[in-house]
UniProtKB/TrEMBL annotation:
InterPro entries: AB_hydrolase_fold (IPR029058), Lipase (IPR013818), Lipase_LIPH (IPR016272), Lipase_N (IPR033906), Lipase_panc (IPR002331), PLAT/LH2_dom (IPR001024), PLAT/LH2_dom_sf (IPR036392), TAG_lipase (IPR000734). Residues 88-421 form the Lipase domain. It comes from Phyllostomus discolor. The keyword Metal-binding applies. It catalyses: a triacylglycerol + H2O = a diacylglycerol + a fatty acid + H(+). GO terms for biological process: lipid catabolic process. This is Triacylglycerol lipase. Residues 429-524 form the PLAT domain. GO terms for cellular component: extracellular region. It is found in: Secreted.
Length: 536
């Protein structure tokens, strides 16, 4: 009997096959698994399931360099199948591409695939400078006269923004807008949307798009005498691995920034397949939706991919995104899938939002080396080591240990739930003096060289004279180097109180080099009366 079968491939690379009697769509389904981001590829073809095989799929999927819209069907879980590959396509300018190991046949990449031609993908380069900040100039390495006729300057750094799967390019335009505010540079946005509309195709096509970026840089070098060390690739999601492909083909490339590199089909793959430290002189990575397993609901990879790997808020789920999810027991599946997609987008997009904010805040986003986020939250990795700490984002290249190899440190920090996201970490310790133990709360008002002051809650509960209370605080204001501290306490009782407390000694540690400031006091005060401390 002939059946109609529909294959769905989600963003995590999992394939769900639904069998239906042709020509009507019958609810008699032999297997269906629902994922919030299913239907990334939706194909309907009449087939005879009795004769279906992995070999047939391989032949239909890899028969030419140009793929039809159909990706065919694959054997369904839970039995894993590895499809036999071994084909090759070659294209002018960008070379040859095989679908064998390590591009397929591994646990993370069980399905063979070849990239489309450069003409089908149609990778475009859109230049913005301070001469044309709003209207792009399309430039081409194939017709390199367009580069010479444009506002491209060989005297300036070049930032190339590369999107991932199905991107509308808005974040790239925002990135150029912010970059050009602080830097007179060449800002180029890559458009490879033709090759990235379906995730599985995009995974394969980024190899050709990456080769096109490398060819573009090669033309800059050979035709215009431009140094590849002045090129900075900024890639989001699949675009991060695309940047890695370009970097692997470009000796002496200056820098790659990976913004939450994609996990599906790249997690635990060999370095040749994904972004890795060998792809540029500096590879820095921001992980914001990084998971190990698909059921953890993440679009990024937990794998360290660079010289500096930053995991803000642990790198998995970002504050401010979790309130997008409606509980599943509402039984509104369409609404749930929509909100799950928003949840992915929010976490995944935080990487480029953090990066853009860092451009305007050179001293923000200080990150601390630590074995795990749990250890970081416990305060075991504060303050910065002797060599200092890097800042996550645009100014990570200022870190003097950035190129140390091997540098497999994980760098952690916290951010806020809303913009402005930056936080500045302080470790505050206060030793109390007083006439009686009491129930209350202790606050310290800290001022600094930035001309700002912030009040922090340090302790609450039983306040014991002679005891020392310590708290790690992520401040939403950068006070600079600490120059003043005031002590205030509030009692958890009503009416007039005979109790008096004071700060005998306060120590603040903060900043990328762990600056320590110590202030002392001698008197004690009643509740809500400020005690002004002096440097010891």
């Amino acid at each position: 009997m002939d059946f109609r079968a529909r294959a769905q491939i989600d963003i995590l690379g999992h394939v769900f096959v639904i069998q239906e009697q042709a020509p009507t769509r019958s609810p008699n389904k032999f297997m269906e698994r629902i994922h919030p981001l299913a239907s990334l590829v939706d194909v309907t073809e009449p087939i005879n399931l009795e004769s279906f095989s992995a070999k047939a799929f391989t032949n239909s999927y890899t028969n030419t360099g140009r793929h039809s819209p159909s990706v065919g069907l694959v054997p369904t879980p839970p039995t894993p199948h590895v499809l036999v590959a071994g084909r090759e396509v070659c294209y002018e300018r960008v070379g040859c591409f095989k679908d064998g190991l390590p591009w397929t046949g591994t646990l993370s990449r069980q399905f063979a695939g070849l990239p489309w031609s450069p003409e089908e993908i149609n990778t475009r380069f859109l230049l913005y400078t301070r001469h044309n900040p709003s209207a792009s100039q399309e430039i081409s390495a194939v017709n390199y006269q367009t580069i010479g006729d444009s506002h491209f300057s060989t005297d300036k750094t070049t930032h190339i923004n590369i999107p991932g799967w199905k991107s509308d390019g808005k974040w790239q335009q925002d990135m150029c807008n912010v970059l050009l505010k602080v830097e007179d540079a060449n800002c180029i946005n890559v458009d490879w949307i033709n090759g990235s509309l379906e995730y599985l195709h995009a995974v394969n096509n980024l190899r050709v798009a990456g080769a096109e970026v490398a060819y573009f840089i090669d033309v800059l070098v050979k035709q215009f005498g431009y140094s590849p060390s002045k090129v900075h690739l900024i890639g989001h999601s699949l675009g991060a691995h695309l940047a890695g492909e370009a970097g692997s083909r470009t000796p002496g490339l200056g820098r790659i920034t990976g913004l939450d590199p994609a996990g599906p089909y790249f997690h635990n793959t060999p370095n040749e397949v994904r972004l890795d430290p060998s792809d540029a002189s500096l590879v820095d990575v921001i992980h914001t939706n990084a998971v190990r397993f698909f059921f953890e609901f993440g679009a990024g990879t937990i794998n360290a991919c660079g010289h500096l790997d930053f995991y803000p808020n642990g790198g998995k789920y970002m504050p401010g995104c979790d309130d997008l999810i409606t509980p599943l027991f509402t039984f509104n599946l369409n609404a749930y899938k929509t909100e799950m997609a928003s949840f992915f987008d929010c976490n995944h997009a935080r990487s480029h939002r953090f990066y853009m904010e860092s451009i305007l805040n050179p001293d923000a986003f200080i990150a601390y080396p630590c074995r795990s986020y749990e250890s970081f939250k416990a305060g075991n990795c504060f303050h910065c080591p002797k060599g200092g700490c890097p800042t996550m984002g645009h100014f990570a290249d200022r870190f003097h240990l950035k190129n140390r190899r091997p540098n497999r440190s994980y760098y952690f920090l916290n951010t806020g739930p809303l913009s402005p996201f930056a936080r500045w970490r302080h470790k505050l310790s206060v030793r109390l003096s007083g006439n009686n133990a009491t129930q209350g709360s202790v606050f310290l008002r800290v001022g600094g060289t930035a001309g700002k002051a912030e009040e922090f809650g340090v302790a609450s509960g039983t306040l014991q004279p002679g005891a020392t209370y310590t708290k790690l605080i992520d401040a939403d204001v950068n006070v600079g180097n600490v120059t003043s501290i005031e002590f205030i306490w509030k009692e958890h009782s009503f009416g007039r109180s005979p109790n008096k407390l004071g700060a005998e000694r306060v120590v603040d540690k903060s900043g990328k080099y762990g600056y320590e400031s110590t202030f002392c006091g001698q008197d004690i005060q009643g509740p809500t009366v400020a005690q002004i401390l002096n440097p010891c």
